[in-house]
Input
Amino acid sequence: MLRIGIIGCGGIAAKLAPVMNAMPETMKIEAVASRDQDKAKAFASEFSVGKAYGSYEDLYNDKDVDLVYIATPHSHHKKEIINALNHGKHVLAEKAFCMNEDEAREVFNLAKEKNLYVAEAIWTRYMPSRKIINDIIKEGIIGRVTSITADLSYRILQKERIANPELGGGALMDLGVYPLNFALMALEGDEIKSMAGLCTKTDRNVDVRNTVVLSFDSGATATLTVDAECNSNRFGFINGTEGYIEVTNVNNPEEIRIFSNDRPPVLKKTIKVTHLINGYEYELQEAAKCIAEGKIEPPSMPWSETLRVLRITDAMRKVWDIKLGDELKN
Output
């Protein structure tokens, strides 16, 4: 059984905790930690966790914890991942995994040295919907993929973690990673040839909305948009020479529809996407399986792909002159 310690008792941790509790044969929440002892105690009480710590260090020193699930703002991820690794803990860290590629590379080098599992918890990479979409593409049902469009917009600019550059704010790092991963998963193995992007920034110098355009060696393109000031339809489209795929909600696929190349297009098939629990179980199952088998990175989100996504966000932020987290000190 995998014994888990959670640091950061916010909204995302509250979504993962019930899933962990629903998998008693595979894992157990051993402890939770927050810099606010009362918050840790309240979280522990709500989710039936035996230990509640008022510091992360106390949780790292708990010999009964095998894996640390990091649910802090992503500006803090590098520091806490390194702390957990140096205490001999495996790590599952929320997206965005780190602030930039250099931070992530430092983390992965340490994980390799310590022979400990580290993974980015971006749930869409682990979901069954990924295989469904990839199988449709591989079977040639929509022909050769020519272009992808995806949008993910939520009205969340009022949240401090989005508005504050010190916390790694902005639409790109919080929302933009989902359309990026959507495109990279659909064009699996296709190398990026060029990229460009535009954004609108706030007076605190974080991006409130942006468009990123990628071109690939195959000739395919991807146009990806996010906006932290509005709610959108969250649709993704994968267009091919013989038809297209429409995905409802690129953040958590609910329905996949396949259309023909006719004018007008004809709906050929609808696939409803369901989960065993709520969708977060797959990243947890993979972590438990990999650790049991002695693997230190997940097949669904290998370190090379985490680095590739951060390479893209680094490039865009450099063009937009946006610094986040510890980058602000330089």
User: Anything to note?
Assistant: The first strand starts at residue 2 and ends at 7.
